[in-house]
Known about the structure:
By secondary structure, the protein is α+β, with helices and mostly antiparallel strands. Helices cover 43% and strands 15% of the residues.
Amino acid sequence: MSQTPAPIPAPMPSRSAPAGAPLWSAEEAAxxxxxxxxxxxxxxxxxLALLITVAWAIAAAPEPPCTDAAPCGADWPGxxxxxxxxxxxxxxxxxxxxxxxxxxxxxxxVARLELPDAGPDSLAANLCVLGALAFGWAAARERLxxxxxxRDLVEGAAGVRHxxxxxxxxxxxxxxxxxxxLVLVAVAAFFVAxxxxxxxxxxxxxxxxxxxxxxxxxxxxxxVRVRTDDGRRLTLDSLYPxxxxxxxxxxxxxxxxxxxxxxxxxxxxGPQLGVLAAGLPGLSLLVTGLLARRRAAALRRGPVPVLRxxxxxxxxxxxxxxxxxxxxxxxxxxxxxxxxxxxAPGTHEVIPKQRDDREDPFSAAVRPREAVLYGAPCDGxxxxxxTTFRDGEPAVLRTSxxxxxxxxxxxxxxxxxxxxxxxxxxxxxxxxxxxATLVTTGRPLSWGPGPLARxxxxxxxxxxxxxxxxxxxxxxxxxxxVREVFFLLCLLTWVGIAAVLxxxxxxxxxxxxxxTGGWKVRHVPWDGLRPVRCTKEGSVETRLPDGTEWxxxxxxxxxxxxxxxxxxxYARMAQEVNALRHHPELRPTxxxxxxxxxxxxxxxxxxxxxxxxxxxxxx
Length: 619
């Protein structure tokens, strides 16, 4: 059985490659990949720089007390500053176009609000914030410049442009995020109006109010108790009761039944939080939808570059584009989610991405197929793909998500993991490489956590035990509180994570795989084994025969481990298990002992945590 991709059928000339459409060679695809943005412009560095410097600036910022001469009140510029800082943590990663506007805006706000009269520590921290904003702005500009370089290269390689195959479905790209964004922005505007209305109402009361001097006689977490000159005792709400020492004098404003401290006007905290909660995602969705719609409209506007490529779909329905001469589909160049745009008469209405999850997603044949790519691919771009459905009928697909470059580790023989058809099973198995690290002797094979995972698991376990012990002692001494119970439950969820990091185990023997997580051991026979996938977040996933998913969440940090020259054990495990799946002659023949299968550490760690917590609480 040849691994030559399935060709595009010829019944519809408009669906096949236009005359003169060049093949996107592996050499040209490699040049295109090398034009991606520089490593220093990766969003991770910009996000970390801004996060660290903003946290430093917040810690170093002075907190002047609220006084009659300098009352607190609603801080709308501060809300804008905080909103831009929080939003940029997302926009730096996903929306470089918005970053080019938001980063200078935040720099101006910081320069005007924070730098004047700043102390040495605060001045240094805020100057570092400005530096982080400049770095993030330069990184966003580099990413956009890389897109232009990639588009220019493709346009040069394609030569003559061609119109899109028609007829096309109506333009709907970006409709949902635009609508959702407008709704959230409207909600944010409502909260702004509510906040301003509350401020005006507070000012009207303050203008009519009588001023009374009182002495502080007590305070708690949310209020202060005062005694006026005429002997009355009042309890007043206070956001900063620590600013008012017992015995100190303060001014109370009274207008009928309305009263408050003169130093603490209405601060509109609730409406401002509502503005941030609705406005930030609303703005992000709105800009995302508008950009996607603009790119999709530009793709339809006129003739575009056309290239002949090879495509194939992975287990998650993501379409991976390969060079046209990469007939075995070994090295993906780019990936994206696609949906049917204008299916030909008699074809299906959806592609594998929209399959029925109740069916076995691994039963269908997914082979490399010839395809025609319309548009200039680049990170975040919009494309049209002319390919075939599983039954061989032609189809026109459009991107439903941004084009993404393969993350580090995606490459030949790893991902995307694909399922062969019945006729091509032998050829697919032959095309699945056997890792050099896989040495079989007939005895069971085991894989477990590496040093980085064990170190993180041990640190998390110690933190969990200490935190649970302290929180339990607080509950015993001070009584049950909602905050303490919630914190205790959050800490207990870390037990399972620590157990996985410390002692996950995958064992292969003659009967199949033994999968040991944090709480139990699962067995999967070889005949029911599905592809094992490693995610870019460092998790391991596979589908079990009963339809459930077995997952090891966050067992490593792939990029960090590779940076230190470490080979992630979970990545090696996934590669070797997939090789065993396709090469039965390499599988172990002996059974694994109960000890070799591994022991879930969750119950033991939970027992240890509870024992230490009770001993500490009762000590």
